[in-house]
Every structure is written in structure tokens, then in C-alpha cells.
Amino acid sequence: MHSGAPFRFGDHKFAMRLAAFLLAATVLSATPLHAETAPVTAPAAAQPLSIERVFASPSLNGAVPRGVKLSPDGRWLTVLRSRADDRERYDLWGFDRKSGKWRMLVDSTALSSGKALSEAEKMQRERQRIGDLKGVVTYEWSADSQSVLVPLDGELFLVALDGSSRKLGGAGADLLNPRLSPKGGFVAFVRGQRLWAGKTGGEAAPISPEETAGTVHWGEAEFVAQEEMARITGYWWSPDDGHLAVERFDDAPVGVVTRAAIGAEGTRTFEQRYPAAGTPNSDVRLYVMKPDGSGRVEVDLGQDRDIYLARVDWAPDGKTLYVQRQNRAQTRLDMLAVDPASGASRVLFSEQAAPKSWINLTDNYRFLKDGSLIWWSERDGFGHLYRFDPRRYPESQWQQLTKGEWVVTGLAGVDEKAGRVYFTATRGDVLAQQVFALDLARPERIERLTDPAFTHSASMDKAGQTLLISRSGPSQPPQVYIADGKGKRLAWVEENRLDGAHPYAPFLAAHRAPTFGTIKAADGTELHWKMITPVMEPGKRYPVFFQHYGGPTSQTVTRGWGGGLEQAIVGRGYIFFEIDNRGSDNRGVEFASALYRAMGSVEVEDQKAGALFLKGLPYVDPDRIAVYGWSYGGYMTVKMLEADQGLYAAGIAGAPLTEWKLYDTHYTERYLGDPNKEPQFYAGSGALADVGRIKDPLLLVHGMADDNVVFENTSLLAARMQAQEVPFEMMLYPGYTHRVGGPKVGVHLWNTIFAFLDRAMPEGKDK
After folding, report:
1. Which of 91, 580, 664, 706 is catalytic?
2. Rounded Cα–Cα distance for residues 165 and 162 (Å)
3. Could you tell me which residues come within 8 angstroms of residue 755 by beta carbon, excluding any fewer than 6 positions away?
4. CA-to-CA distance for 752 and 741, rounded, in angstroms?
5. Domain with 75 in it: what CATH number?
């Protein structure tokens, strides 16, 4: 359950995930990539949208690129595009600004060996939520803009613009996390739990010590860092290519669990080191060394070894290494300033959690060349931007740049020369994030740069000159464009217009736009909901597909593109409904902290409020409200059926977490504390004790190779229900992990769900 990303199956609100797009440090000119076209006209006749088409290729979302970058010389704009015949396979495409033409730079099918990924890479991709993708999933430009570094099938290639390629890394492959140094002189990667490095195009060699213990890893991120802290890498290049900061972790203290990956043609077992709540974490250390491994010094992370290595960054001049250290309880975050020559550290500043709350980690910060820092903090109760500069503010050291009862959701970039800061925020509308800019000299003057009819995400080039903006709306799939510092669109990267050639065009006439509204929680808190209705007949009542997630660090109700699955559900005659309960994201500390030591309580209560609201609507069939959730949402389904018998007609629990002591330290202890010290919160939040209270039809679904919410969660629940003679249905997916998806299995899953609902709450059912 990724920090901010334990997900709902079928979540098509991925437009906002494009915030990870990166640009090089060159400004793109106003040369258009696509000609402007006339407004689209919907087809005259509505075509029904089937489940089969939702999961078929090409994607109904249209051309939604990944990994948008500019070459260092500014000539090429590159994107990863899915193939028309395989929506999960990506190739690298480039737009040559000199010729004004697109062409494929890397054909993943031509370069691919077809070799299966190593188990380590498979698991890492699961942590990144890209386990379903194939082909080119990441790449880097060389410093001279003449080639790109492309990992593929566990191997590493340097591909020139003329199409020629050279394999790097030597024999054996199965390498992880390849990265070019900032100046392009070196390439590094992880192989065999050691960090390797060498000159680009030359031979690489291991630069970390050879360890006798098989539990020691160099240059990798430990499990909880990948799964919960959104930190995938375990090494960081200095700006001048002269040094690397390298993580070493030892899993010896971590408990071993036997994970059975049950597949269609057999079962594989893995002895996995998994830090369950209340048990020891990995022993994590940090070192600084030269690219050949010499000059290695250990960074002083403090006397308390039971901490989290949250973030590592080099100062722009490379003279200081900054390390974010989070305590085990996640109530304190220290920013350490480290001397790379000696490893000596000092606390630059600290963040302290509000009472009965926690510290949220973030990537919304930027070290500036003048020695100051743009920093995101929730210290005033909402996530806002601050400037830390002891020299400029000797008394307080801090200047608050943004304020108000709204949240900065992302730091897009900083134009240091102009003194402008670019960010995304919920200012004006919590359901539609916009891109804003402010001047450091007058931060109170905030300028909105985007259209409020859409919800947005954004990133920038390193110089803070060019914005890469993604936007979507209730009736517009994600669009991506490049803009200048004033928000003026310079060029479309993907206009993704709903014209006659768009994959969604045949279904546009049947498209149903959502409506939005609010209801009150029991304590008076305003809760936002979203509803999509079919074309309704007067006097007729309709069943409801009530989707929920409910967990922390997630917002499901937005004014963005919902995708084809929601529309297919509505096309089957259901009202689609979801509501963001207390504890969800982007509403401030107090709103989120409702789940502190209280999982399975207020979120269940708020979803109930949504159900009661639905039952009061004249066009809703009050006896046919089905609830559905995946991961934390699956847990919620079980808790909701336990709490309110007869309120819901049926429930679907996908990959439900039922016993919190089975889940990992960083996520679970953040909200429930240490089970050895506060066991009462685990007893109250679990989903197993009250299974005898479930009286309504329940369908359990789980991937049998799930290493996130392990299958034991569902098997424990099933055993408890059987022991208490509680009937239920179950569908298991051999070989699938936490994501049960894909062109074929997705169809099977959703046909299974609808078949279950047809049995559980047929039309005319009287409860």
C-alpha cells in the first residue's frame, strides 16, 4: 500500500500521475507539434461500451505519453508511447524540432531479447506500480544529445539517433536502476546486490565491497523505501560526477516470510524479508565514495539506528549532501547537512508532527544555488511552501510563501533568475488542481496559469523556464502540452482530441458526464462526492455501483477524466458513485488525521453517510446498492458489511487487508502505532474479529502471488467466515500480484463481478 498509492483496481484517474514527467534544461520554442483543429462533433448514434472494449487496445484514454523529456541540446522532444496493438508495450518516440517530424527512436520489439525479468526487477516494478508495462519503461539522454540510455529486459543499451545500439554492462545482465552521471561521464547500475560503475561506453566494475552475507545490498532501496516512501533508488550522483552517495542495507534483522506465488502451472515459494508492523527494519547506512569506489566514508546518521533514510540530495554546488532522517514513529523529520569528505553531519532543521498526527514525506522541495531551500510543510495545518534561508531571515530562518485553507500538491519548478516558483494546488477548488506561480519578492501575489475547467499536474525543466502540463476534464481524456512561464501554451505534446480518429470517439455520444456535490459527516465536516447516472426514465429506480478507497493519502473525487470503466458500469444501468471520507488527501492535517489510531472507524461512518444520502434519492433503488473496493478499499468493503448489516445489498472486496499486523512497518505504524506498545488499536482496526456480523453477499478477489497485501489476508478471512458458517463467494487469480489486470484477465474479473451482482441483487429484489 504505497504511501499515497495503495490503489483501486480499474483506477483510470492516472492523468495526475504525469507529474513525474521531466524536462531537460533547454527551453522549447513555440514551434507547434500539431496543428490546431476544429471543435469535435460527437457521433450521431450512441455505441454501447463493453467491458471487452475497455481492456482492449488501443486504450480508450487515447495517446497518453509517459516519460516526456527534452534532449540537452533542445532539438528533440521525446516520449514513451504505447503501441496501438498492445496498450501495455511502450516504444520511445522523438519529435525532431529541426525537421518538424516525429519518428520512433527505439522499437522495443526490435531491441527486446524476450528474456524474462529477474525476480528483483519484477518486484521493483511492482513497487513502482508499473508491473504491467512492457518494452521501454524508462530512459535517459546522454550529455551530448546523440544517444539515449535504455534498460530493456534486464539489459542496458546505448542507442544512437541513427538507430544503432550498443549493449552496456557486460555479460549476465539482470541489472537494476541504471543511471548516467549528471555530466554524462559515467554510468552506474546494481547487479548481484553490488553497485557497479564505469565510464559511459566503457567497462563497468563493482565499486561497493564484496559482502559475505547474502542479506547485504549496495545501491538499492530497501523494501519499505520502495513500497511506502516512493524512493526507488539507493545511490545518488554528485553534480560534478565526482562522487556518489550510496545506501547499504542489511536485511538480517528483518523477519522472513514464506511467500507462495501460486501460478497456473505450479507454485513458487520465496523466502522474503518482510518487515511486518512491530518487527525490526533493515539496518540502513549511507556512504560517500568516488566513481571507482575509493575514498569511501560513512555518513553519520545519528546514534539511533532505528530510523528511516527518507531522502538524499546533493547541493547544487556538490559541496554538501542533504539527508532527510525520519524517526521510527514518523513524528519527526530531520534535515541533515553532511560534509561529503568526512561524513560528519549536523541537523539543519526539523519538522515535528502535529499532535495525534504524523509526518508526510514529500518530493516538493528544491535546493537553490544561493544556498536557500524551497520546502513543503504542513506546519500550519495545510501543506504549503516555505523558504528556508538563515542568512536572509536570521531570526526565524523561514519565510512562508503560500498560506490558506488549501493545499500545495506539487512543486513544479523554480526559475531562480526570475525569482519565480511554480506549483500545483487546490486553491479555489479542491477537486480541480491548477498550476500557479508566485514571485519570491512578493509571494502574496499568486498567479493562476491554467484553465479551471480542467484538473492539472505539472513539472518543469531544471532552469524553471518551461512548463510541462497535463490536464484532463470529466469529458476530456488527458492532454499534455508545453507552456512558458506565463502559462502560454507553446506546443502540444499530445493534444489527444476526441475527434473521429480517437479510440473513444465511437462511444462519445453515450458518454455521461459526472455531477458533484457535498454532504455532511457526523461531525459536520463537508465530504465531496461524484455521481454518474445512466439516461434515466421517469419514475424508475436504479442500482448503485458504490466505489470506494477510503485510506489515507488518496483523493478519488476530482474533476478529471474517469476513464472507460466507469462509463461501461453506467452503460450497464448502474449509477456510479464515490465519496471522499475523512482521512483522505488534500484537505489538510485535521481532515487526514481523523484516521490516527482509528482505521476502520470514521471512514466506514462517512461511507455510510454516502449510502444514506443515496437511499434518499428518488431515482436510487435503496435495496440495490453494491460496494466495491481494492486494497484498502477491499478492507473497507469488509468493515462496511460488518458495521451495517442490510445497508448494502452486496460487497466486493479486492485484495483486502484484514490483519494489520501482517502489513509493513512504515505504512502501518504511521497510523496505528507499534503493535507491541499499542495493541488495542490493531484489535479495533482489524477486519477478522467481526466476520460473524456479515449478513450480506460478499465476493472476495485476490491475486495469488500478491507480495503487497499477501494472500494470507484473504485466506485468514475465508477461514474465519467458514468457521462461523458465513457464506461468501471467492475468485482467485493464479500468478497475479496486487494488480489483477490486463486485456484478458481484466475482462474476466469484471464479468465475474457483474455476474455476482446479478445474483446478489437482481432487479426487483426486496430486502
Report:
1. 706
2. 9
3. none
4. 13
5. 2.120.10.30
Q: Residue 666 catalytic?
A: no
- Domain presence at residue 486: no
Q: How far is CA 170 from the centre of its chain?
A: 33
Whole-model pTM?
A: 0.91
Q: What is the DSSP letter of 692?
A: G
Half-sphere exposure of 607 (CA within 13 A, CB side): 33
* CATH number of the structural domain spanning residue 598: 3.40.50.1820
Q: Collapsing DSSP states into helix, strand and coil, what is residue 603?
A: helix
C-alpha cell at 249: 542495507
Q: Is 631 a catalytic residue?
A: yes
Cβ partners under 8 Å of residue 24, min gap 6: 69, 70, 71, 72, 74, 141, 461, 462
Catalytic residue among 243, 502, 511, 738: 738
The reply to whether 250 falls in a domain is no
> Which of 174, 192, 213 lies at the terminal end of a domain, its last residue?
174
3-state SS of 475-537 is CEEEEEEEECCCCCEEEEEECCCCCCCCCCHHHHHHCCCCEEEEEECCCCCEEEEEEECCCCC
What mean pLDDT is predicted for residues 226-235? 95
Tell me the Ramachandran region of residue 698: left when phi exceeds 0, alpha when psi lies from -120 to 50, beta otherwise: beta
Contact 436, 446 (CB under 8 A): yes
* Number of domain units in the chain: 2
Instruction: Please name the amino acid found at residue 275.
Output: P
> What is the β-pairing status of strands 515-520 and 526-532?
antiparallel
CA gap 639, 691 in Å, rounded:
9
| Residues linked to residue 374 through DSSP beta bridges, in sequence order | 366, 387
Strand arrangement, sheet containing 698-703 = 515-520, 526-532, 575-579, 542-547, 620-630, 650-654, 698-703, 729-733
Q: Where a domain ends, among 144, 174, 204?
A: 174
Count other Cβ atoms within 10 Å, centred on residue 541.
17
Is 259 inside a domain boundary?
no
Strand partners, 263: 266
Of residues 420, 422, 419, 410, the one with CA closest to residue 457: 410
Among 631, 685, 702, 707, the active-site one is: 631
Q: What tens digit of pLDDT does each residue of 28-62 get?
A: 333 334 333 333 333 445 788 999 999 999 999 99
Interval 56-114: pLDDT, tens: 999 999 988 888 888 888 788 899 998 888 888 999 999 888 888 899 999 999 888 87
Amino acid in position 711: F
* 226 in any annotated domain: no
Evaluate whether 521 touches 605 at the Cβ level (below 8 Å): yes
Q: How far is CA 380 from CA 329, 383, 402, 581, 595, in A?
A: 21, 8, 11, 22, 19
In the chain, the amino acid numbered 440 is: L
Domain range for 751 is: 520-760
Catalytic (active site) residue 396: no
